[in-house]
């Protein structure tokens, strides 16, 4: 990350937590993922390095993962990717707002 910061000092870096995996809330991988995400979260600085964890958005109220969201309980399905995109969109909008053309830069066409 240091090399990237040197080359792109004004860039915003978005670190995302590892998604949950395994069908049930008691899957052993969940504890490992939680520990890794805690380490990743400490890399954020609140300015140029941000951390977000969308993991809970993939879970049912009981903590399980639906096969509709992750068919193999690891890789997102189309519905899973939509959940991810919907969660990510506000961050993209904040840091990469749609550019609006300046009034003076519009090309006028004579008819």
- State the CATH class: Alpha Beta
Name the average pLDDT: 88
Number of domains: 1
Number of strands: 2
Structural category: mainly alpha
Helix/strand order, N-terminal first: HEHEH
CATH superfamily: SGNH hydrolase
Strand line-up across the major sheet: 1-2
Q: What share of residues are in beta strands? A: 5-15%
Describe what this molecule looks like in 3D.
By secondary structure, this protein is mainly alpha-helical. A two-stranded parallel ribbon has the order 1-2. It is built from 3 helices and 2 strands. The radius of gyration is 19 Å and the shape is globular. The chain has one domain (2-105): 3-Layer(aba) Sandwich (Rossmann fold).
Secondary-structure blueprint:
Blueprint (H helix, E strand, L loop, with lengths): L1 H6 L5 E4 L11 H14 L7 E4 L25 H18 L16
Parallel strand pairs: 1-2
Task: Give short descriptive properties of this protein.
single chain; 111 residues; Rossmann fold; two-stranded parallel ribbon; 2 strands; 7% strand
Short description:
This protein is mostly helical and 111 residues long. It has 3 helices and 2 strands; from the N terminus they run αβαβα.
């Amino acid at each position: 990350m240091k090399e990237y910061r040197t080359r792109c000092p004004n860039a915003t870096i978005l670190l995302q937590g590892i998604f949950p995996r395994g069908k049930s809330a008691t899957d052993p991988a969940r504890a490992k993922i939680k520990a890794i995400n805690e380490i990743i979260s400490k890399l954020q600085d609140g300015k140029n390095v941000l951390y977000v964890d969308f993991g809970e958005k993939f879970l049912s109220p009981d903590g399980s993962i639906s096969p509709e969201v992750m068919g193999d309980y690891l890789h997102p399905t189309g519905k899973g990717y939509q959940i991810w995109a919907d969660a990510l969109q506000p961050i993209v909008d904040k840091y990469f707002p749609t550019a609006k053309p300046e009034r003076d830069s519009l090309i006028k066409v004579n008819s």
